[in-house]
Amino acid sequence: MSRNQRTDDKPRGRHAKEEEKTKKISNKKNIENKTDKKNNKVDKNKKKIKTVRKVKRIVVTLLLLSMIGAGSLFGYKIYKNGGGLTGTLAALLGENTENLENLEPIQVLIMGESGVDEYKLADSIMIASYNPKTQEASIMSIPRDTYVGKKNRKTASQNYLASYKINTVFRSGTNIPEAIERINDLTGLSLENYVIIDTDALIKLVDAIGGVTFNVPIDMDYEDSSQDLYIHLKAGEQLIDGPKAEQLLRFRHNDDGTTYPSSYGQQDLGRMRTQREFIIATLKQTLKPQNIFKIKQIIDIMSEDVTTNMDISNIKAYVPYAVNFNTENIKTGVVPGDVEMCNGVSLYIANSKKTEELVSELFLTNDEENNTESNVEYTNTSKR
Question: At 90, which helix (H) or strand (E)?
Fold first, then answer.
């Protein structure tokens, strides 16, 4: 290699080294810049996370304080209303236990209707009473074929007789004032309030409390496609949900003609007994601690799906005291009377004297009147 060539190579080598050094420095700066940017981004994210966490802590703290404040206020209302289930329900429903002094005993006509549109009839008819001060309650069933006409039934036409069975006086929610008037004539009471429950409302109410444990007295098998009624229940204790409740309460007899045993009460008498006992079982289930906070839901269903002339707010006032009621002490009965065929029409003819005695014991409060001997049943469902 010539001298000139070696001389020329030297500056190139130095230049290359300088370029390489410069490149390394540049790369190092780029890496540092990237690292700085990454660190800045991480710092920003950390600050953002800290800010979010701080906001969350503030929100949670405010919520907790609100809950504590609301809880304290609710607890104070419970305490002010006497504590326990009564105080809790009074606070929950916005009631005041001091209102007890102003609450009067309540009597109400309860009718369960079934059927389609204008053909709906009263399947069950009862009079119920409750006294919140004495914690007394009564239920009296009225057979749906009870004759409430004012003409002499022996000279009346078939159409007149059929139209003055109590369940046909009431039809499809109409003639309610006349039905109440006829029942007041029959019982000597002065009923004004009524509640009409159709099958849809019944199903909702029973399902709202998680069903009712009930001892079905006999096997029930009956079908009527014209009423869209299909009853298939086995005898024995079981959980009755809404649809099964409709089957249970509407049953009179099986397809083969068999019905409740005479010791229980055949046909309508058996059905009325089942209805009364199911109502009592439903009350027991509703008043269980786990269902207490469903009372408002039940009241909402009543306000939407039950026909009544009563103010729902007035009904609510009785609820806090009803939780103390012992369902074993409900007095029950059925209007005394006999079945009679008249001009080809089957009627239930009430015995006026015995009906007066029964009404006196179930619904009047004077001690001397309550000592009258009658057909009162003191329900004890724990033994059934």
Answer: helix 84-92
